[in-house]
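Write out the 3D structure for:
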Amino acid sequence: MTKHSKKTNIGIRHFRAAVALAQEQSFTRAADSLGIVPSALTETIKQLEADCGLRLFNREARPVTPTEAGEEFLAGARRVLSDFEMALDDLRRVGGIERGAVKVAAAPSVVLFHLAPALSAFHAAHPAIEVTVYDDIAERIGALVLDRVVDFGLAERWHETDQLDYEPFQVDPFVLVCHRDHKLAGRAEVDLAEIPAADVIALDESTGIGKRIAAAPEIPPEFRRGTLRTHGTIAQLTLISQGMGVALMPKLAASVIQSPQIRHVGLRDLSLKRTLCIITRSRRSLSPAAERLLACLRPLGSPASP
């Protein structure tokens, strides 16, 4: 049995090296992201593996992938790095340095209508704090929060887990989106039965919006089986702007592309809405910088009404 000494030369740089290698899946790219040469990264990973007595990466695989033991280690390493960065931010702030960093993940519509104005106010008050924005679908946004890649997320509820807290932020009703020349474009409201099923551009259920449409009993099944399908609302909107069909989607999502070719029509017999939430890790406090950004963001939401 291998006996490990309490004394070790393993430190934060070894954790950062392992996380970078797992993310980039290449020694060359990971070394570049860390600002070191590949040989130095290789030696750092070897030191880490020697200290724990386990192989953490399959070097023969292309791309380079973590072993089962490596996956377990990386989950803890990401938590350690996140806590380390938060501790440093707090320490700098105690020393009177108004510096730090915030990472947030959000659906594109939230970036446009809520996060952008919040960031404008935030940067005016805290110009030295760095902010990184990830735009993605609900499933991956929740995963980014779970994995501590970001401080908080803004999206629909996707993951049913006690490791995440969901604070309702904005209610967004579904509308019909069509080209301005479509026969329904001039209407204030329409019934679902008036929408030609052959015109509908279906949305993949891998997205939060697609998942919600699939679960709505009022929506005709043929609307979900269109011959034209996309994996995101941006593609839907682009196709609609070219007169290639219509779609059902939340009003905020439908407004991301500002095109004079696109019209929004109310749905008289569909009360479907999505609720966008502020997603945080349960039982984990946010950094002061992240709390300040949320303080700028919360007044812009409307959790109880569209």
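Residues 68-94 form the longest helix (27 residues).
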